[in-house]
């Protein structure tokens, strides 16, 4: 199987459409979405509609859960909280029901894949996996060969050798026999690795590659301004932070 993997769209329709357009040039069998369709961006309903029609797997992220009252926003920063409150007001009842029904992880045993929005260790607590040490502590919490994650908005490929050594790669790596992997798909709608281009991952049995595609950031920013979303969220899009 050949998979396209995306995460953290966050209501950014222009970024999502740019990724899907680029994926038409790729060969893949299934689109896997790792959560956070909403939050921050100006088109939550539209993004949900696209994702439910295009993705074969849909997970919920912390912003999705917060938008339907299933995750407390007390630990969200003020800008994120304001964006969620706006999202709650504009979400359709149908899309609220969909978000409330989505799981936060999925184990595809036959495909040797673990999918989770945040981390395989305590996925419901929305931890961040940001370092090789974080990865080392998370490998014991899934049994599959590969764990696909999002949440941090920073793409990464992390390998555990049979001897327990941790290696990191970017933007691509070979998938080796008897090695295990944690792969962060980055973010479609709000990258935070200094590159404002939308991120996605192509995964095969033998390889993984992080890819980027530009989109009309100015259009998204103008929509956010018209919606009254926080300036910090608007400005960060063009910086990729």
Give an account of the 3D structure.
The protein is of the alpha/beta class. It is 31% helix and 22% strand. It has a single domain, classed as 4-Layer Sandwich (Purple Acid Phosphatase, chain A, domain 2), CATH 3.60.21. The strands form 2 sheets. It has a 6-stranded mixed sheet. Helix 2 links the parallel strand 2 and strand 3 (57-58). The protein is globular, with a radius of gyration of 17 Å.
Give me some keywords for this one.
single chain; 241 residues; alpha/beta; Purple Acid Phosphatase, chain A, domain 2; 6-stranded mixed β-sheet; 31% helix; globular
Write the layout of secondary structure elements.
Blueprint: E1 3-6, H1 13-23, E2 30-33, H2 44-54, E3 57-58, H3 62-67, H4 78-90, H5 93-101, E4 105-108, E5 113-116, H6 132-138, E6 146-149, E7 156-160, E8 166-169, E9 172-174, E10 180-184, E11 198-203, E12 207-213, H7 217-227, H8 231-237
Parallel strand pairs: 1-2, 2-3, 5-6, 6-10
Antiparallel strand pairs: 1-11, 4-5, 7-8, 7-10, 9-12, 11-12
Helix pairs in contact: 7-8
At the fourth level of CATH, the homologous superfamily is Metallo-dependent phosphatases
Q: Which architecture does the CATH hierarchy give at level 2?
A: 4-Layer Sandwich
Tally of helical segments: 8
Q: Can you tell me the residue ranges where pLDDT is under 50 for at least 5 consecutive residues?
A: none
Q: Separation of termini?
A: 33 Å
Q: Which fold does the CATH topology refer to?
A: Purple Acid Phosphatase, chain A, domain 2
Largest sheet geometry: 6 strands, mixed
């Amino acid at each position: 199987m050949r998979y396209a993997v995306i995460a953290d769209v966050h209501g950014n329709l222009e970024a999502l459409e740019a990724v899907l357009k680029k994926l038409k040039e790729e060969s893949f069998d299934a689109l896997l979405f790792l959560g956070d369709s909403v939050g921050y961006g100006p088109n939550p309903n539209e993004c949900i509609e696209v994702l439910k029609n295009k993705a074969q797997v849909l997970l919920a992220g912390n912003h999705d859960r917060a938008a339907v009252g299933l995750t407390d926003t007390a630990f969200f920063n003020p800008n994120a909280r304001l964006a969620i409150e706006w999202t709650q007001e504009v979400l359709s009842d149908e899309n609220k029901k969909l978000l409330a029904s989505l799981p936060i992880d999925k184990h595809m045993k036959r495909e040797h894949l673990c999918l989770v929005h945040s981390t395989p260790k305590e996925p419901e607590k929305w931890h961040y996996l940001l370092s090789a040490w974080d990865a080392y502590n998370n490998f014991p919490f899934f049994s599959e060969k590969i764990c696909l994650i999002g949440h941090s908005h920073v793409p990464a490929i992390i390998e555990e050798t049979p001897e327990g050594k941790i290696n990191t790669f970017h933007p691509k790596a070979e998938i080796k026999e008897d090695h295990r992997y944690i792969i962060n798909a980055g973010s479609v709608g709000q990258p935070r690795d200094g590159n404002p281009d939308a991120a996605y991952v192509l995964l095969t049995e033998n390889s993984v590659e992080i890819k980027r595609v530009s989109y009309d950031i100015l259009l998204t920013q103008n929509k956010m301004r018209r919606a009254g979303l926080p300036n910090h969220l608007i400005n960060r899009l063009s910086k990729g932070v």
